[in-house]
Amino acid sequence: MTDDPPSPALLPAGLSDLLPPEAEREAALVEAMVAVFGRHGYERVKPPLLEFEDSLFAGSGAALADQTFRLMDPVSQRMMGLRADTTPQVARIAATRLARTPRPLRLSYAGQVLRVRGTQLAPARQLPQAGIELIGPDLPEADAEVAAVAAEALAAIGIADPTLDITLPRLSPALLDAAGVEGEARRRLARALDRKDAAAVQALVREAGEAAHVLPGLLAAAGPAEGALAALEDAALPPAARAIADNAGAVIAALRARAPGLRITLDPVEFRGFRYHTGVAFTVFGAGATGEIARGGRYMSGEECATGMTLYPDALLRGVPPAPPRPRVFLAFGTDPALARALRAKGMATVAQLSPADTAQSLRCTHILDAAGTPRALKE
Amino acid sequence: MTDDPPSPALLPAGLSDLLPPEAEREAALVEAMVAVFGRHGYERVKPPLLEFEDSLFAGSGAALADQTFRLMDPVSQRMMGLRADTTPQVARIAATRLARTPRPLRLSYAGQVLRVRGTQLAPARQLPQAGIELIGPDLPEADAEVAAVAAEALAAIGIADPTLDITLPRLSPALLDAAGVEGEARRRLARALDRKDAAAVQALVREAGEAAHVLPGLLAAAGPAEGALAALEDAALPPAARAIADNAGAVIAALRARAPGLRITLDPVEFRGFRYHTGVAFTVFGAGATGEIARGGRYMSGEECATGMTLYPDALLRGVPPAPPRPRVFLAFGTDPALARALRAKGMATVAQLSPADTAQSLRCTHILDAAGTPRALKE
């Protein structure tokens, strides 16, 4: 479609229009993914865009409080927030209106979230989300299910070869606890792990207790899941870290059983950006330069154990090859309505002439009807 | 689904959660309608939820300025609004990024709008909208097309027998102008027409110029389109009013050609609530108590003529009979994944057992697999 460059002042930074054909493509991607969720028993909920900040910032929602647009409700005189994430709202629904529905509770959602500020790398302030939450069980099988269902949803929209990166955000803290690394030493070691600065980690663990001595090896072991699991297996881990490692092994084994073809990497000591996760955390990357297309993992949904995955349709839109455009058939005055209906039933668009000035070209049609009523492609 | 009554303080007044199965039903209704729009050449756009109030309140948007949530943009320090209607945003897109796309321009949209306050009759403050805009032509055929396409979208979701009520918001003002009715007399007559108070209208037109003398007759003529058109035909109308009446006749004739079965009523002197309409205005009612399910008509999209229709999925959700629930098949441990895939491909949900505690009943399944792998319905 003709697309004049937008005036820079037209829309606020990070807010944009989706034009044809992208708006239709994004909606189709979302509905195709939610349909996959539904076929695995995940039932759709639709929380409102605005709610009281008390409930929005409860639990995992606290992490996004300073990214949330806030508004005074003129009716109640209480502060409301425009949701910056959907998971805290699903947690509220699970804990209140669906409190008596038996667990496991499988819920899905799709909609928009808004953020006060974008970042240089991710400038958008309105983001579409589609996701699932599996609330109740504290089981590796549950984590494996949400990752496998997400992978199936991605396959359904043509993202054939994603990589699931698993991190264990509680493992490094457990090792630092056991090694007695605290205060400034802990901050420095955390920063070095964050930056994957192997030399700095190596230097810093020398002064730390024995439990931290496995960190350089585990940092180096990040990569394909089986290799990283073997490194965890061989490492001398204190009990809390061993339990985390064993759980990771169980999640990956359950995933191998459900999604044998899925490429899985494991980064045992990575923990940045997963503040509220209580078990495995997931990041899904698309092939090539698509980047991050989903995020998830285990967390607390109010008082309940939960695991889930959020997919990013805006990133997916960039990663999925465009579908062939829908044929547009020019409907001249007097075309038989039954014929037009039949063409629409076959998935074509029929574009009606409203005045003699309308031509197949001015209506951007790709096809005209010949004397027999058969659509013929127009030359470009 | 188990649905505990919500705590009244949980969500702000007029904001609510859609639970299973309603959230899925609403999304399905919206996508089915937008698909019909697409098959008539209406291409989807997705404007952001938030934009600068300057553009949001331009043109037809001014009517909703005091119903719009306003926010300071921390990035630009300018005021933004949460959209209370989508049509002004589509007008902005048409006038800017799609300014060079040939007219007629057919666009569709679907999304949420927010209002500062609900009314006693319509308490919701977040409303879904799905609609079409036909921008460029000032032709009765264009008005007829948007009404006929809307009716087809309603038929596609099972609203089989809607009534299209056409009003002519400029007719009464044209008659009062011609009759020289001004000031307090005009306000009183407008109020009487608003209330459909035939006796008061009769009394008030006695003191007015001759052009107003047709008002009682036209008030009484509201009803099936053909009768009301005949009354307009017979009435002694000044030229401006005659042009409005002739245009209404042409729109209705074009509609009869496109949608022969559609029930059409015409209320020539009604003009309440259509402040920015420049030609025919539409209200669509569902059968029974469903109430208003769509609104539209002719307006100015910036500097361009336009006509459009907005459908209300929340009202449609109440008017469409619920679909039969999707079968939920219990997947016990060890069920063949290929069998599960085949069931999902048939549209069933497969709900996996994650622990021995999960039973067909606790997972709210409707079917279990027999020894041959065939789903068997569970007794209620």
Describe the structure.
Two copies of one chain form a homodimer. Chain A has 380 residues and is α+β, with helices and mostly antiparallel strands. Chain A has three domains: 22-160 and 288-313, Bira Bifunctional Protein, Domain 2 (BirA Bifunctional Protein, domain 2, 2-Layer Sandwich), CATH 3.30.930.10; 170-272, no CATH class; 328-377. Helices cover 34% and strands 22% of the residues of chain A. In chain A, the strands form three sheets. In chain A, strands 1-5-6-12-11-10-7-9-8 form a nine-stranded mixed β-sheet. The first copy, chain A, has a four-stranded mixed β-sheet with strand order 14-13-15-16, with helices on one face. In chain A, strand 13, helix 12 and strand 14 (349-352) form a beta-alpha-beta unit. Chain A is elongated, with a radius of gyration of 25 Å. The model of chain A has no long low-confidence stretch (mean pLDDT 94). Chains A and B meet through helix 1, strand 1, strand 2, helix 3 and strand 5 of A and helix 1, strand 1, strand 2, helix 3 and strand 5 of B.
Features:
380 residues; glycosyltransferase (chains A, B); glycosyltransferase activity (chains A, B); ATP phosphoribosyltransferase regulatory subunit (chains A, B); 3 domains; BirA Bifunctional Protein, domain 2; homodimer; amino-acid biosynthesis (chains A, B); alpha+beta; HisZ (chains A, B); 12 helices
